[in-house]
């Protein structure tokens, strides 16, 4: 029996109860949210700032373990807080630019499987939306929910003899969102003030909140979801291996969505797929190809392609079925052109062209020390080329044993060796880049990265030899060849390069000089002698100064407060003691900051090294 039904929700075989409506008062709800946020903040600070266990130094493995435990606590707490925070947590599971891997892994497990709300309430919502009785619309209506999720539930029905899925929004969601998101916005504003960005990540918490709020409100607009489904279907018109359920617009409103019933098997259910006689390797390839088409051709992609939203059936020798179009992403034309230029730059091993493409996409903000970014990019391009060459050689030498031998995951020790190699080569450049914070990651990019991670997991569950890069590489080449206007532009670029090669030597030096002058004029490059160790030492001195000043002021206030207290001015002395405590906390915070900076420098550079740059 198929284990998936249209509608983008999990099966739920029973249970009753309400959902996340707006029945809770505003004040108790606000208290619940802030209590949870404050508890998490304290736990996070405790894990982050503990320098040692009672028995000795805290190892990186121990830190990771503590973060993993806190991530589990966070996930369970978000589930208790209900629909808004489940969805916010799911969105943050895509933010690799904000959260550490331990939190990303745990939040990715967030499930919004909750008990269904009463069917009578669902019928009331439908009849209010339509202004008609359910019995006047459907030939049959199954009162037992087929599936339930945090934002709604689905029922099966018969419409003019056709089996359809009726998706009904959970009552009170909009009111709940308004209460919850006001509190989330307040938290985001506080985080924007408190976040020291000591790890080098550029985070605009208010912008992140705005993106989360936009997506949440879009997910409860079923008319928009219907239009998304139709646009997605139109993009795959003529592709017989992709199926999108048909929308019945006559009965679709903001709170009710009626669509075709298309049952299927979850895309990662390998045993059931084998039972159906389908080619698992082919399905893995089609899943990735469909997503590459969405990204590179359509610029409109499914932002949540987890196994619950992608299924398959036996039509046409194996067909993909997409569900749930509430969360979609769009890639503007200039970003897609930037992706094309990036592919071309990687193909040509041209780091400058890669950087230009990344700047054009808005991911890299020009300025600061672009020399460090350029060297870092050059290093990774070289490593990428070496990896491809290693793969080609291994495929020739190992043959059928390639998957089981070459693709064996690295051990922890091997991963450490790789990390040490990277730091030994570009550790200083990574430190400079972290200080300048030139990278910005639009939400669409985080969804794309997360989606490819999910697809990689799906592919490996279907095919042990699955390698997403092997599927993507030829597809990207085909995409490059089809982009005629840009190909012609790049051909002109190649002609210019060929002409320059003829006059190598003095002309090349002149061109190099011209580039340097242009960069100097634009402010992109600065002539400077940069002693990194001296800069870091100066930063440490500044922190020490702050510690000493805070400590001195705190001691003076303590003395003054003690004197006033002895003379009976207890109210004034209490205020002064509170001020002393504040300065003491400031001194302690700077001590922790100094320790954190030292650890970060040691992790990135190992030892101090002086570098002179142009």
Report on this structure.
Belongs to the protein kinase superfamily. ADCK protein kinase family. The chain crosses the membrane at residues 572-592. Residues 15-24 have a biased composition (Gly residues). One of its GO terms (cellular component) is membrane. This protein folds into 3 domains: 1-264, no CATH class; 333-522, no CATH class; 532-605. Helix 11 (280-298) runs antiparallel to helix 17 (443-462) and helix 14 packs antiparallel against helix 16. By secondary structure, it is α+β, with helices and mostly antiparallel strands. The chain contains 22 helices and 13 strands.
Distance between the termini: 67 Å
Helix percent reads: 55-70%
Rg over CA atoms, rounded to whole Å, is: 29 Å
Task: Outline the low-pLDDT stretches.
Answer: 4-8, 10-24, 51-56, 498-506, 520-531, 605-614
Number of domains: 3
């Amino acid at each position: 029996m198929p284990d998936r039904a249209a509608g983008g929700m999990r099966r739920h075989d029973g249970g009753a109860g309400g959902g996340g409506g707006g029945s809770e008062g505003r004040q108790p709800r606000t208290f619940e949210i802030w209590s949870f946020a404050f508890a998490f903040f304290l736990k996070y600070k405790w894990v982050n700032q503990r320098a040692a266990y009672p028995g000795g130094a805290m190892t990186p493995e121990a830190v990771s373990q503590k973060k993993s435990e806190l991530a589990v606590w966070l996930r369970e707490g978000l589930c208790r807080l209900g629909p808004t925070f489940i969805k916010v947590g799911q969105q943050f599971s895509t933010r690799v630019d904000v959260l550490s891997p331990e939190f990303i892994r745990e939040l990715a497990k967030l499930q919004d499987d909750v008990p269904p709300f009463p069917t009578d309430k669902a019928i009331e919502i439908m009849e209010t939306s339509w202004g008609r009785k359910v019995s006047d619309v459907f030939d049959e209506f199954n009162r037992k929910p087929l599936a339930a999720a945090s934002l709604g539930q689905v029922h099966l029905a018969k419409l003019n003899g056709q089996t359809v899925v009726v998706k009904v929004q959970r009552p009170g969601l909009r009111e709940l969102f308004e209460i919850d998101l006001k509190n989330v916005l307040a938290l985001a504003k506080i985080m924007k003030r408190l976040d020291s960005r000591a790890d080098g990540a550029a985070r605009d918490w208010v912008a992140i909140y705005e993106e989360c709020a936009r997506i949440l409100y879009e997910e409860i607009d079923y008319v928009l979801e219907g239009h998304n489904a139709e646009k997605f279907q139109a993009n795959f018109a003529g592709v017989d291996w992709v199926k999108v359920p048909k929308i019945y617009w006559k009965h679709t409103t903001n709170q009710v969505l009626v669509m075709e019933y298309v049952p299927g098997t979850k895309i990662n259910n390998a045993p059931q797929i084998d039972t159906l006689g389908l080619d698992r390797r082919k399905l893995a390839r089609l899943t990735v190809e469909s997503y590459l088409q969405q990204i590179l051709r359509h610029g409109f992609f499914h932002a949540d392609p987890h196994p619950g939203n992608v299924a398959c059936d036996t039509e046409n020798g194996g067909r993909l079925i997409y569900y749930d179009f509430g969360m979609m992403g769009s890639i503007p034309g200039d970003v897609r052109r930037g992706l094309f230029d990036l592919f071309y730059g990687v193909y040509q091993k041209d780091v400058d062209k890669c950087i230009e493409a990344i700047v054009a996409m808005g991911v890299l903000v020009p300025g600061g020390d672009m020399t460090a970014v350029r060297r870092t990019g050059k290093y990774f391009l070289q490593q990428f080329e070496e990896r491809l060459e290693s793969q080609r050689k291994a495929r020739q030498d190992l043959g059928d044993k390639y998957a089981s031998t070459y693709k064996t995951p690295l051990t922890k020790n091997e991963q450490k060796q790789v990390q040490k190699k990277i730091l030994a080569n570009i550790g200083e450049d990574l430190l400079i880049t972290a200080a300048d914070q030139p990278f910005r990651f639009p939400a669409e990019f985080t969804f794309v990265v997360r989606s490819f991670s999910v697809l990689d997991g799906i592919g490996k569950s279907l095919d042990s030899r699955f390698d997403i890069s092997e599927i993507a590489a030829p597809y990207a080449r085909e995409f490059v060849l089809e982009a005629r206007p840009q190909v012609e532009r790049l051909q002109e670029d190649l002609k210019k390069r060929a002409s320059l090669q003829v006059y190598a030597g003095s002309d090349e030096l002149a061109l190099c000089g011209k580039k340097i002058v242009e960069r100097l004029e634009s402010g992109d490059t600065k002539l400077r002698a940069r002693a990194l160790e001296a800069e870091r030492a100066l930063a440490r001195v500044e922190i020490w100064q702050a510690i000493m000043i805070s400590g001195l002021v705190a001691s003076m206030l303590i003395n003054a407060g003690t004197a006033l207290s002895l003379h009976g001015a207890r109210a004034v002395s209490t205020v002064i003691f509170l001020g002393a405590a504040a300065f003491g906390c400031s001194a302690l915070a700077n001590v922790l900051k100094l320790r954190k900076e030292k650890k970060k420098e040691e992790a990135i550079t190992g030892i101090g090294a002086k570098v002179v740059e142009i």
